[in-house]
Amino acid sequence: MSQMRQNIPRKKQVVDSYRQGIIVEGVYRQTVVIRSYEVGPDKVATIESILNLLQETALNHVWMSGLLSDGFGATHGMMKNNLIWVVSRMQVQIDHYPIWRSRIQALETASGRNARGEVMEIDTWVGASGKNGMRRDWQIRSQATGLVFARATSTWVMMNQQTRRLSKMPEEVRAEISPWFISKQAIEEENPIKIEKLDDTAKYVLSNLKPKRSDLDMNHHVNNVKYVRWMLETIPEQFLESHQLSSIVLEYRRECGSADIVQSLCEPDEDGLFDEVAVDDQHKRRITVLHGFSLASGLLEANRLVEAFNQSPFSYTHLVKIKEEIKNEEIVRGRTTWKRKISSMTFPA
Length: 349
What we know:
Blueprint: H1 2-6, E1 15-16, E2 21-24, E3 27-33, H2 47-65, H3 76-80, E4 83-94, H4 105-111, E5 119-129, E6 133-142, E7 148-160, E8 166-167, H5 171-177, E9 204-209, H6 224-232, H7 237-242, E10 243-252, E11 262-268, H8 276-290, H9 295-311, E12 314-322, E13 329-340
Antiparallel strand pairs: 1-2, 2-3, 3-5, 4-7, 4-10, 5-6, 6-7, 7-8, 9-11, 10-13, 11-12, 12-13
Helix pairs in contact: 2-6, 8-9
């Protein structure tokens, strides 16, 4: 009855007209438009919106494959063995953020940007990750220009839904998903950076965070996208106004339930330690140098300024954990990298 109600395909589908999706050589491609509720005050898509889109297209890929059973991305073989997917690691690199409304109307027609929101194509595919894991990759690009907005990769493992313990991949499940495996990668990681554990001496700490009912997913634990929100809330508002997230790496440790009390820790990385006031003063001084110089000299200095900001990203290390008197269990470790917003640079009149 549940499958009839959800209209879950029992066979592979090539075209999904309802979701504007197609499958081409194992890759699922979906066309999406950025909505007004998916952007922030600057009218660009938020990192949470991007992560939600990645999650949605992944589920739609399984749906179209004909393998989806009555579960959160679980195949028929997984349901027989009482297994579910859980993400263990995720990395997202963002080169450009999709917009909801173009700031420069003249560019709107030339670039093919929709008057209401960016029209994007999201590709997603899967591959093997060790003996018992699965890798899923994504690429987000402009439908009109082909400009790549973001790339992402993730590693998934199986968990027993009752015992909440990790499980090996049954052969029947491997037989289901292995024909869909593709070797290409959206992000190649030769030497993944180890994320160090933080303690209560971290520079920024938010305590007594309580999951809301709306934070829970279909598996009855906090959706992994919500952890990112807790991480970003520890970063100073002044920094967020002038900087833009360029990459994020997440290492998941355990689940978080509705009754857990959560603490979010954040520490600027040693290589990216900075004095916000000093950075602003240096920025203003370099802009002021341009005033009164020749155009050629000014352009050269401006190019160097932009290049300096691009080459010197700021990084933070994050930890979201359950706060208890006896033990503090880690939920997720994270690392965020940021670059200065070009739009926040003020030039003299």
